[in-house]
Write a structure and sequence with these properties.
The complex is a heterodimer. By secondary structure, chain A is mostly helical. Helix content of chain A is 84%, strand content 0%. Chain A has one domain. Chain B contains 10 helices and 10 strands. Classes of the chains: A mainly alpha, B alpha/beta. The complex binds adenosine-5'-triphosphate and magnesium ion (MG).
């Protein structure tokens, strides 16, 4: 019962978010601000995590296939496909749910309990549209860029593992990441990321926007935002993978 | 003119507003007074449409606000300035940006005109030289004053203030009260002020409504309030021993 109430309120919030937007110039300005907040500020974490994960996958795969019968290009190929298929989209989304989702929920929650959202409403502004729409647009534009960045940096991390560690020769790694390359894996990763960005921003905004009470509730809302968007990301991953890859 | 008719509102079975009716005239300071927890904020938020009442009507001049849909309400709200009990400044924006905000949203003036208007409003509330500061860097009284500047930026027809001078020293409190009064008379606004401060009542209360446990228990002017025989109101007005001594003779 409670679940249906949540879904109903969520859908109503989304209808307000996409209904009667304000001035275009203001929407544009807000989107730019949000791109900085949700996107550019996530660059660092994406780069660091991807580089390490790329390196670790390389070392592990190499360790697991130390069989002279298996060709070494398999290492590069496995790294590339793990990044493309799962890590840079789904795992990255889970990380961003933690970073961006909690900040959206706590920002909106604070605005709710300090009556800033009421202040917008009494000015005659559609607060849902003013606050949430720019975040969603910014994420849909910028998360795919972060996904591509993660792929590139992850591959580079694997390359570093080849040059610095005694795994496989870098030239074979390079061969490997080019071997049997499926271009549509990239569009698959990007499509998933677009869905994830909508999930993260809208679900977190939902929990933040409807906070009642005080600072404790803001904290709870931000935890809920992360947990629920993570679950939904995994669910969406399953559904999208079934539909896109068959 | 704002008029409320037979408002009822309950939270979890407890009446917070119980059959409240009142009429608020333009060009006058209408005060809603009452003890802490008596329902003043709920009444003011109901008038602003932030709380949906269970029953009753809210009229803004000839429009039945309580029965309008969201978009028609927005039109009235553009003529409304609201000061919240906690100021509710946007904390990601500076003082200047806060006052510019409604101008950015709803006017098509150029940058300079908007800045002039914002600075004019800030001067009216005597906040100058803090344009670049963020709300977190302001004192409580300054926040209230900046919030008033934001509320009057668009020359509202209706001004709703929830305890504009709570938490301020008596002197600053009176300055803010007088500012509200001046603006009310100057622009013939319909002003409703929540207060539990007798100083404001005696200073600016053209019309005073006393809320007791969610009911309107008394209504009159500031002259009449000192001679009332309403028991609850007497307790409220003459709460201190000092005040009781004034009452005696
Ligand atoms: N959202 C809410 N949910 C449940 N009860 C509420 C809610 N808002 C207010 N109340 C109750 O309504 C009553 C009146 O509250 P209100 O905030 O209007 O008081 P007030 O007169 O403004 O007091 P103060 O002078 O302290 O600001 C209180 O008993 C409060 O507990
Ligand atoms: Mg109050």
């Amino acid at each position: 019962m409670k679940l249906f109430a949540h879904i109903g309120t969520y859908l109503l919030l989304m209808r307000r978010t996409f209904g009667q937007p304000g001035k275009h110039s203001i929407l544009y300005r807000q989107v730019m601000r949000e791109i900085e907040k949700v996107g550019i500020n996530s660059f660092g974490i994406v780069v660091i995590i991807s580089i390490f994960v790329g390196a670790v996958i390389t070392i592990q795969v190499n360790f697991n296939i130390e069989n002279p019968l298996l060709p070494t290009y398999l290492v590069g190929l496995t790294v590339r496909d793990s990044l493309l298929l799962e890590f840079s989209s789904t795992m990255m989304a889970l990380i961003l749910a933690g970073k961006v989702g909690s900040s959206i929920a706590s920002e909106l929650g604070m605005m709710r309990i300090t009556e800033q959202i009421d202040a917008l409403e009494v000015m005659g502004i559609n607060s849902a549209s003013y606050l949430i729409l720019p975040k969603m647009i910014a994420a849909v534009i910028f998360f795919p860029i972060l996904c591509l960045l993660s792929i590139i940096v992850g591959l580079f991390g694997g390359y570093l593992a080849c040059t610095l560690g005694n795994t496989i020769p870098p030239s074979e790694y390079i061969d490997g990441i080019q071997y049997a390359f499926q271009a549509y894996y990239i569009s698959y990763a990007l499509t998933k990321t677009v869905f994830y960005s909508l999930i993260i921003t809208s679900v977190s905004a939902y929990f933040g926007y409807h906070v009642k009470g005080g600072a404790v509730e803001v904290g709870k809302a931000s935890t809920k935002a992360v947990v629920q968007s993570s679950i939904l990301i995994l669910l969406a991953n399953l559904i999208l993978t079934r539909t896109i890859l068959g | 003119m704002i008029e409320v008719k037979n408002l009822f509102k309950s939270f979890e079975g407890e009446f917070v507003l119980n059959d409240v009716s009142a009429r608020f005239e333009p060009g006058k300071c209408n005060l809603i007074i009452g003890r802490s927890g008596s329902g003043k904020t709920v009444l003011l938020k109901s008038i602003a449409g932030l709380i949906e009442v269970d029953q009753g009507e809210i009229w803004y001049d000839d429009q039945k606000f309580s029965h309008l849909n969201a978009s028609s309400r927005q039109a009235i709200r553009k003529e409304m300035g609201v000061l919240f009990q906690g100021a509710a400044l946007f904390d990601s924006l500076t003082v200047e940006e806060n006052v510019l905000f409604p101008l950015d949203m709803f006017t098509h003036q150029n940058r300079k005109e908007k800045l002039d208007r914002a600075n004019f409003c800030l001067e009216r509330v005597k906040v100058t030289g803090s344009n670049g500061m963020f709300p977190a860097e302001l004192s409580g009284g300054m926040k209230k004053r900046v919030a008033i500047a934001r509320a009057i930026a668009l020359n509202p027809k209706y001004l709703l203030c929830d305890e504009p001078n709570s938490g301020l020293d008596p002197e600053t409190g009176i300055i803010i009260d007088n500012l509200i009064k001046e603006l009310t008379v100057e622009f013939q606004m319909t002003t409703i002020v929540n207060s539990h401060d007798m100083n404001s009542v005696l200073e600016i209360g053209d019309k005073v409504i006393f809320i007791f446990r969610g009911c309107k228990s008394w209504e009159g002017s500031r002259e009449e309030i000192l001679k009332t025989d309403n028991e609850a109101l007497n307790k409220f007005v003459f709460a201190t021993n000092m005040a009781k001594k004034i009452k005696k003779p």
